[in-house]
Amino acid sequence: VSSEWEAVDSIQIGGRNLYSKVNTRVEMLSSKGTLLKDVLGAENGFKFVSNGAIHARIRCIEKGAGQYTISFLIKSSVASSASIMFEINDMGSKTIATTTSYQKVTHTINNTLSYSTTYDFIDFESSAASGVEFYIKDFKVEIGNKATDWTPAPEDVDAGIAAAKTAANTAQTTANSAQTSANTANSLLSDLSNDNKLTAVEK
User: What is the three-class DSSP state of 120?
Assistant: First the structure.
C-alpha cells in the first residue's frame, strides 16, 4: 500500500500551458526549415517545412530546474524517413517516427538547469528531405510529470477576449453609422413628400 501511495505522491500536475501563442517566441535557427504558426492542420501549434533540415527553437518557455511535460499531436506529409526530435535545453531528447496520421506524443523531461537567457528553450530538429511537412497541433508544456488535456495559456484567453470585444465594438460602430445614414435618408424623403420641393441638401 505504501508503494502505491508513493506512486500517487510522485505525480506532479501543472495544468497551466506555458506556451503562449501571443507571447512565446518561436524561431528557425540557421535558416533550417520554415515555420507557420496556428494554421490549418497545426491549430494551437506549428507547421514546419523542411528544406533539407529543420531546427526550430521555442524560447523563454521553461521556468527553471524541475520536471516538464510536453504533449501534442503530430503528423507529417510523408511517412518514410520523416522523423523529428525534440528536447529541453539539450536534455531529454525524444525522436518520433511520424506518419500521415496524427499520433499523440507525451514526454516528461527533467531539466536540471536553473533558468537563464541561455537555457530557456525547447528545440525541434529533423533531417527530413526537402519539402517534408510536420504538423504539430495542441502543443502544451506544463510543469510536472503528468500531461493534462490541452488548454490555452491564460494570456491567449485574455487576448481572445480583447479581440472579441474589439470586434463587437467595431460592429456596433458600423451598425450605429448605418442607422444614422438610414435616419438621414428617411428624413430627406419625408421632407420631399411633404413639400414636393427639392432643397439644396435633397438635391
Answer: coil
**Helices and strands per DSSP (H, E), number in the chain:** 2, 10
Q: What is the dihedral of CA 15, 20, 24, 26, to 10 degrees?
A: 100
Of 52 and 114, more confident: 52
Q: Is 38 left (phi over 0), alpha (psi -120 to 50) or beta?
A: left
Regarding beta strands 121-126 and 133-143, do their DSSP bridges make them parallel or antiparallel, or are they unpaired? unpaired
CA distance 53 to 33: 6
Tell me the pTM. Answer: 0.75
Report which residue type is found at 166.
Answer: T
Q: Listing from the earlier edge strand, what are the strands of the sheet with 133-143?
A: 34-37, 46-49, 133-143, 66-76, 103-111
pLDDT of residue 190: 73
The x, y and z cell numbers of residue 110, run together, are 527533467
